[in-house]
Structures are given as C-alpha cells and as structure tokens.
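worker-3 :: picked DUF3953 domain-containing protein
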Amino acid sequence: MKNYNVLSTICLGVFIILFSMMINGFSFGSLGKIAIISMFLFPLLGVIFGIKGKKGVGKWLLSLLNVIALITIGYLLLLGFGMGEA
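worker-3 :: tokens ->
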C-alpha cells in the first residue's frame, strides 16, 4: 500500500463529515465520545499518512489541511473542557 496520499485524503474526508454532522446538531447518541475521539484521531492519522506520501505539493497540502483540522478540533475540545479563552 504505497499510496498514502489517498489514505490521508480519506482521513480528512471522514473528519469533515463527522465535523459537519456535529455542527449541524446530529445526535450521535451513546457513540458521542467515540465520535469526538475519532474526530481527533482521523486528522492525526491523516498527518502521518500525508508525511509518508509521495513527494510533491499534494503531500504538503494534505499534511497542512490535516494539521489545521487537528488544531481546530483540539481547540474546540479545550473550549469544551473549560481550558480555552477566559
């Protein structure tokens, strides 16, 4: 499995789908904690796959987008736990 850029894109796509469902008020029910954890792990996995991908602009673009997604969900989790802005 040498095409890590595709796996990085899939991880970013899954994050975007889960994030948009969360923003629109979709109820995950008893799977809420698993959804939040997976929204943190998919961009992290996407960064790892993006760095391992083929050389070129796509590698760095996917890595950057996944890092931005990771920072976004990390910031929202900090706000949710009361450690964000005062």
